[in-house]
Amino acid sequence: MLPKQHRLSRKDFSVVFPQTKRFHSDIITLHYLPSLLPYRMSVVVGKKVSASAVVRNRIRRQLYALLRQNMQNTPVTGDYIWIVKPSIKSEKREHLEGVICQLLAQTKEKR
Fold it and tell me: In this structure, what are the phi and psi dihedrals at residue 28, rounded to the nearest 5 degrees?
């Protein structure tokens, strides 16, 4: 889990989501809103991904762990909403990490 200062609350989520720029991959859609504040993020794993809450929570934890690693390595600002697509279930961790790095690089280009 991320520290509270780096999490988007439900109230923030509803304000940030309509204003975001979208970046797509085959397994994740990233909604990004630039700001000068330290990064805040949320991961959304819907029931379309899996009907089982156990599976959805495992995917969410794995994604948060990868994001925490990548965010520590590079200074980032802005608000990030990561929406997981159903095809993520068949992907390996290495591919997932590559997709995260690719989407973060795309947000840096658009700043």
Answer: -140, 145
In contact, 43 and 64? CB cutoff 8 Å: yes
CA distance 40 to 12: 10
Whether 16 and 78 have beta carbons less than 8 Å apart is answered as no
Provide the whole-model pTM: 0.90
Q: What is the mean pLDDT, run by run of 10 residues, along the chain of 111 residues?
A: 85 88 95 89 94 95 90 80 93 91 85 62
Max alpha carbon distance in the chain (Å)? 37
Domain-wise residue ranges, the chain: 4-88
In CATH, the number for domain 4-88 is 3.30.230.10
Locus of tokens 């200062």: 5
